[in-house]
Design a protein that fits this description.
By secondary structure, this protein is an alpha/beta fold. It is built from 14 helices and 13 strands.
Length: about 400
């Protein structure tokens, strides 16, 4: 179905948001670099265009929580869903306001950190985590000092009294661990790690304060009522129509980035010095990783024809169709390893699930009438980057058929 984009006076802003090359920034967005994130500017424009204050925004593949953060800042109700417990942890930390007392406690707690993080201190080894493989590939000659400092810091984090304080501190450690270990050729020294952790703590406290201030302002501006503003579900999308919290109100907007068919993206691992994968992020965040890569991507990317992927896609969107109405707009940004084959099948699968594609004439920039963007130097893992097929993303619009 071909239409003109709503709110035509914002078309240039929408195109700018889609094609922006600026990094994701502001408030709590920098708390963790989740793979395949779209920009917070894109999320904000879509939310402002298709919803009004008080409406429900849903992201069924919330990843790093960009949609949920922006919806909360704009006075919308927000629900995020992800099968990954790591995604759930990150988004909850990003969207949890910190009180003045929380911030004072964290600042005071940090005063004693340098002494506690000295590598010469004895550390309590997390034997259960080790036995289950969560420290895999981070105990080599180059990485063991970082691993030990993480152990020392976690022991100090556990002394914080409030759960939201402990979760925030773990997220700072997760951020710093990613900086130190993920896709780096040279591992920083223990001293550099300690310095970076203190820096990250300071910057993330600033971000949390900004987020808390802005959501309070948004609540006053939009006259938000009720304590329920955002909710995170650690669940598969398949069967979400049974979730009580979702059944209460049809979403006005579903804004998401589903798993990309045939594209190798490590949602659940860091890559240490090449292709040595580690599930350490789950240990640091104190949540479990129960499955391999295909669990997070609808199926093995190497499977011929990706039949499992499209079967799971169909079931997921059949569940989504059950919770939306005629006013719901579904906006997706995604990429393909082979767009010429996979995009038509993707669209046909959504059609079979009960959706119709909307083409906005004034937004198209390609022969197929859709809105595409180039992602410069896209890097999915350590040694492949540049102009791959998956370096292009398409924005898809759908409504109930």
């Amino acid at each position: 179905m071909r239409l003109s984009f709503p709110k035509l006076d914002r078309t240039s802003e929408i195109l700018e948001a889609v094609h922006t090359k600026s990094t994701i920034s502001g408030v709590t967005h920098n708390f963790y670099r989740y793979p395949a994130r779209f920009s917070n500017l894109f999320a904000r424009i879509m939310i402002e265009t298709f919803t009004k204050p008080g409406d429900l925004v849903l992201d069924p593949y919330m990843g790093g929580g960009t949609t949920i953060v922006e919806a909360r800042l704009l006075g919308r109700r927000a629900i995020g869903i992800d099968i990954s417990s790591l995604s759930n942890f990150i988004t909850k930390v990003k969207t949890t306001p910190l009180s003045d007392n929380d911030i004072e406690t964290l600042i005071l707690w940090a005063k004693y950190l340098p002494e506690k993080m000295k590598i010469t201190n004895p550390s309590a080894r997390p034997h259960e985590w080790i036995e289950n493989g969560y420290q895999r590939n981070i105990s080599s000659k180059n990485t063991w000092p970082i691993r030990k400092i993480i152990e020392l810091t976690i022991a100090h984090i556990d002394k914080l009294q409030r759960k939201r304080q402990r979760q925030f501190a773990r997220c700072v450690l997760l951020n710093t661990g990613q900086w130190a270990l993920d896709c780096r050729k040279e591992i920083p020294t223990a001293k550099e790690f300690r310095k970076r952790f203190i820096y990250n703590l300071s910057e993330m406290i600033k971000g949390a304060k900004e987020f808390t201030l802005n959501i309070r302002r948004a609540d006053r501006l939009y006259k938000a009522s009720g304590s329920f503003r955002s909710h995170c579900l650690n669940s598969s999308v398949i069967g979400i129509e049974k979730e009580v919290v979702i059944a209460k109100q049809p979403p006005r907007l579903i804004l998401t980035s589903p798993p990309y068919p045939g594209v190798h993206i490590l949602y659940h691992r860091w890559q240490v010095q090449g292709r040595k994968e580690t599930p350490a992020p789950f240990w640091i965040s104190n949540c479990l990783d129960g499955q391999g890569a295909s669990f997070y991507t609808f199926g093995d990317r190497k499977q011929p024809n990706h039949d499992v992927y499209f079967d799971n896609l169909y079931e997921a969107f059949k569940s989504i169709v059950k919770i939306i109405d005629n006013e719901t707009m579904i906006v997706q940004m995604l990429s393909f390893s082979d767009p010429s084959l996979q995009l038509p099948r993707y669209l046909e699968t959504l059609k079979q699930a009960g959706l119709r594609e909307i083409i906005f004439d004034n937004l198209c920039n390609a022969e197929d009438g859709r809105l595409w963007r180039e992602v410069p130097n896209r890097k999915w893992y350590a040694d492949r980057k540049g102009k791959l097929s998956s370096s292009k993303e398409v924005v898809l619009f759908h409504r109930l058929a």
